[in-house]
Design brief:
The complex is a heterodimer of chains A (about 110) and B (about 120).
Chain A: E1 3-6, E2 11-14, E3 19-21, E4 23-26, E5 32-38, E6 44-50, E7 56-59, E8 62-65, E9 75-77, E10 86-93, E11 100-102, E12 106-111
Chain B: E1 5-7, E2 10-13, E3 19-24, E4 31-37, E5 43-50, E6 65-69, E7 75-79, E8 88-95, E9 105-106, E10 110-114
Classes of the chains: A mainly beta (about 110), B mainly beta (about 120).
């Protein structure tokens, strides 16, 4: 079945460092891909999404490009801030069955 | 309200008791999902409702778990004879129509503790 694999955390970086959180997926069809974020004490919210190959999703300085050839959707940010500390979930939605499959999440700690 | 709401926000129960968790989706959203988030684990899909179609129950971990959605709106997740391993945050999400592209909007969750 469809699945999402993302790098295990926690990931600890200093402020202004470059961030990459790896995400790869397995899907039979052509899924949409998402990154959701859960800030401390808050609910899950969509960070960005891409619905077809080579699309780039971006929001709040974060970017991720849908790479069909490598089945990847890595999350990147050029200069992280303390306020980016959160848990990040990669997810996919396969149109065949309308379910959204989430990765296990990656906890990010940014040190001042 | 504008968002997905869930109640109660916290529930503490004794092993063996039944619990009901409620989700009010965003008005007009036809799809509703329940997930479970256990400590140190990711989001585990439980059940999915889409319009008037039969729900996708493939994620329910046992027959102690059930859910219904009345009138295409409010949903109730019921856990019978709760066990300690049921302790988790139960999240509800809704989306307008096309889950392939539409954003899922999550509620704040219900934290369930089974003693």
């Amino acid at each position: 079945g469809d699945s999402v694999t993302q790098m295990e955390g926690p990931v600890t970086l200093s402020e202004e460092a470059f961030l990459t959180i790896n995400c790869t997926y397995t899907a039979t069809g052509y899924p949409s891909l998402f990154w959701y974020v859960q800030y401390p004490g808050e609910g899950l919210q969509l960070l960005l999404k891409a619905t077809k190959a080579d699309d780039k999703g971006s929001n709040k300085g974060f970017e991720a490009t849908y790479r069909k050839e490598t089945t990847s959707f890595h999350l990147e940010k050029g200069s992280v801030q303390v306020s980016d500390s959160a848990v990040y979930f990669c997810a996919l939605s396969d149109k065949r069955d309308d379910k959204i499959i989430f990765g296990k999440g990656t906890r990010l700690h940014i040190l001042p | 309200g504008a968002g997905v709401s869930q109640s109660p926000s916290n529930k503490v129960t004794e092993k063996g008791k039944d619990v009901e968790l409620r989700c009010d989706p965003i008005s007009g959203h036809t799809a509703l999902y329940w997930y479970r988030q256990s400590l140190g684990q990711g989001l585990e899909f439980l059940i999915y409702f889409q319009g008037n179609s039969a729900p996708d129950k493939s994620g329910l971990p046992s027959d102690r778990f059930s859910a219904e959605r009345t009138g295409g709106s409010v949903s109730t997740l019921t856990i019978q004879r709760t066990q300690q391993e049921d302790s988790a945050v139960y999240l509800c999400a809704s989306t307008y129509r096309d889950t392939h592209t539409d954003t899922q909007y999550f509620g704040p969750g219900t934290r369930l503790t089974v003693l």
